[in-house]
Design brief:
By secondary structure, the protein is mostly helical. It is 62% helix and 6% strand. The strands form 2 sheets. It has a 3-stranded antiparallel sheet. The protein has a two-stranded antiparallel sheet with strand order 4-5.
Length: 271
């Protein structure tokens, strides 16, 4: 899709650039979540509530900044559920959503390794923190569904400028109102498995968490369709951050697509 504004045409961002943005954003996200968890555990030993507060505050602020950094390139998903629900509504093509998934998972694993190394821990330490329970499963369904509702409500109402802050605020709050501390993201769930620290999750707890997140995404898609029946692919394409692409002169774009500019600057047939 091409967008034209004041004589400048925006071409879609190349897929490899979007995948790089998703990888780097996911890596930073995992590093923030796990690194702040390690720091909290060391700075406030034995004070679980304070540790969670420090971890939640850092994650909320970090997510806000990370979305601002990489969102203009890829949309700032960093979450396979977000990408696939976006594809359901036509904002992302299915092959692109499928390509986002490994980039997001690999990024979260890389971020976990980086967090471990930054705190002088072994690069990979498999977590022994078991989290799977019926309450955790329900928490992940609700946390994931709520996250998707926040994102799509903002896109449908034209308030995408608020999305980075709203997403960060929601995740920060969900750390506290869910017993699972709101992973709400299969990629970060897998990444957190590679750090045996405050923010880790045992491998045996990962499948139920991911199942709950997928169910939460499906539930959110149904609710979004019910609440916003007029949502369009253009609305969906704007989540989480509108990313129209890289600007190029209209004349170059027109020439590339087989058209030329007339004397008044309007596109005309190629000669």
């Amino acid at each position: 899709m091409l967008c034209q504004d004041d004589g400048v045409t925006s071409a879609p961002v190349l897929l490899w650039r979007r995948l790089l943005a998703e990888f780097l954003g996911s890596a930073f996200l995992a590093a923030v979540v796990i690194g702040s968890g390690i720091a909290a555990q060391r700075l406030s030993p034995g004070q679980t509530g304070l540790e969670l507060l420090e971890n939640a505050a850092a994650t909320a602020a970090g997510l806000f900044a990370i979305i601002l950094m990489f969102g203009p390139v890829s949309g700032g998903h960093f979450n396979p559920v977000v990408s696939f629900v976006d594809a359901v509504f036509g904002g992302l093509r299915w092959p692109e959503a499928a390509a986002y998934l490994p980039a997001q998972v690999a990024g979260c694993i890389a971020g976990a390794v980086a967090a471990n190394l930054m705190f002088a821990l072994p690069a990979v330490t498999i977590s022994a923190k078991h989290r799977a329970s019926a309450a955790h499963f329900l928490s992940e369904v609700i946390a994931t569904a709520g996250l998707l509702l926040v994102i799509f409500a903002l896109a449908r109402s034209g308030r995408t400028r608020s999305a980075p802050a709203a997403v960060g605020a929601y995740i920060g709050a969900a750390y506290w109102f869910t017993s699972s501390t709101s992973f709400a993201n299969p990629a970060i769930t897998i990444g957190r498995m590679f750090s045996d620290t405050f923010a880790g999750i045992a491998p045996s707890s990962v499948p139920p968490f991911i199942a709950a997140q997928i169910l939460g995404g499906a539930l959110a898609a149904a609710v979004i369709k019910a609440l916003y029946p007029a949502i369009t692919p253009a609305d969906a394409a704007g989540i989480i951050v509108p990313h129209h692409g890289e600007a190029e002169p209209a004349s170059a774009s027109a020439a590339h697509h087989g058209a030329s500019l007339s004397a008044d600057g309007s596109p005309g047939p190629a000669r």
